[in-house]
């Protein structure tokens, strides 16, 4: 379990994707390269049959040129004072670790560039893995120099940060990046100092110690801390409120009959999130569903109350 804040756990689909790309012609890029190579060989054979004037040496050169076009970069492992960069030349990405040996993320070779936030001037390294996930971290001078050395470049390309927003959790002051349109689906926490790490640890400890009936190990506590910082959870006196793009729910540590959940649209999540940013301190009993009924009315959003089973419904009606 890594607590570097770049992501709690490495997504299993990413390892599956790397394993697929290790096989011949299984990844999209490999299939394209195979098709390109096959097409070139076909052209050579057709030329020999029709013209009869291409020598064996000429055909060899043509085939070799085709193979050169499909060769992937070949980088070596690199270590600086605080980073270790491990290339996966088959998959075309770098695994980046900090000096504690924690993996900070996997970054495709094509994504090694500087993305700079115009408001804060901060620079980021972001790798977008299709539509399923992305890794992100603050790009400091040491890591920038290390990547330039690994790739044999004088300087990394720089572009304006777009498609992502830099946000700050009001409770801890920890920043995170979230892709536009995915505010209710999470983001990537950015631990930028020892103080950030300590606040992250303290929040995880709060979850672990406060809710023994809901959280049974430290890994789960770190996950809940991660979710709260990204605006997807909130701890209360008696339980945990969790929320996302399509609904929210409450789980009580002492009595499951106090549990509740609602369904709503993504527009409602944004309204709830924005409302919480300004009114979090004014909800003394966030775990009570009646409180949220008033909130939904205040923001003019619609919701649907749901129960996981008849017993929970009965418990709600009796309260």
Instruction: Tell me the radius of gyration.
Output: 26 Å
Distance linking N and C termini: 40 Å
Mean pLDDT rating = 76
As residue ranges, the low-confidence spans are: 1-55, 64-69
> What does the main sheet amount to?
5 strands, antiparallel
Feature tags:
16 strands, 9 helices, alpha+beta, four-stranded antiparallel sheet, 319 residues, 23% strand
Describe this entry's structure for a reader:
This protein has 319 residues and is an alpha+beta fold. 39% of the residues lie in helices and 23% in strands. It is built from nine helices and 16 strands. The chain has helices at 12-22, 28-51, 56-69, 141-151, 194-210, 218-229, 266-279, 289-299, 310-318; strands at residues 78-79, 83-88, 93-98, 103-108, 114-116, 123-129, 133-138, 158-160, 164-168, 175-179, 188-190, 233-235, 239-244, 247-252, 260-263, 304-306. A five-stranded antiparallel beta sheet has the order 12-13-14-15-16. A hairpin with a 2-residue loop joins strand 13 and strand 14 (247-252). Helix 2 (28-51) runs antiparallel to helix 3 and helix 5 (194-210) crosses helix 6 (218-229). The protein is elongated, with a radius of gyration of 26 Å. The chain starts with 11 loop residues before the first helix and ends with a helix. The relative contact order is 0.08. Mean pLDDT is 76; it is low at 1-55 and 64-69.
């Amino acid at each position: 379990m890594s607590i570097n804040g770049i992501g709690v756990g490495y997504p299993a689909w990413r390892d599956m994707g790397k394993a697929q790309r290790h096989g011949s012609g299984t990844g999209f890029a490999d299939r394209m390269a195979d098709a390109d190579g096959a097409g070139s060989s076909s052209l050579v054979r057709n030329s020999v049959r029709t013209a009869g004037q291409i020598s064996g040496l000429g055909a060899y050169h043509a085939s070799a040129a085709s193979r050169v076009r499909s060769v992937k970069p070949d980088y070596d492992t690199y270590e600086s004072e605080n980073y270790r960069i491990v290339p996966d030349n088959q998959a075309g990405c770098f695994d980046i670790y900090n000096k504690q040996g924690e993996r900070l993320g996997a970054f495709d070779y094509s994504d090694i560039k500087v993305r700079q936030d115009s408001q804060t001037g901060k620079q980021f390294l972001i790798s977008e893995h299709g539509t399923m996930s992305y890794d992100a971290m603050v790009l400091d001078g040491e890591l920038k120099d290390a990547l330039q050395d690994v790739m044999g470049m004088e300087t990394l390309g720089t572009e304006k940060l777009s498609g992502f927003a830099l946000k700050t959790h009001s409770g801890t002051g920890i920043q995170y990046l979230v892709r536009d349109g995915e505010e209710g689906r999470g983001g990537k926490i950015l631990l930028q100092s020892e103080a950030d790490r300590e606040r992250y640890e303290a929040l995880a400890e709060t979850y672990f110690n406060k809710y023994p009936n809901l959280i049974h190990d430290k890994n789960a506590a770190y996950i809940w801390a991660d979710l709260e910082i990204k605006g997807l959870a909130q701890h209360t006196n008696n339980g945990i409120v969790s929320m996302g793009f399509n609904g929210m729910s409450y789980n009580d540590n002492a009595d499951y009959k106090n549990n509740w959940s609602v369904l709503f649209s993504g527009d409602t999540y944004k309204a709830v999130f924005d409302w919480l940013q300004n009114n979090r301190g004014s909800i003394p009993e966030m775990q009570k569903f009646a409180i949220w009924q008033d909130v939904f009315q205040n923001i003019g959003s619609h919701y649907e109350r749901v129960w996981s089973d008849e017993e929970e419904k009965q418990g709600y009606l009796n309260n």
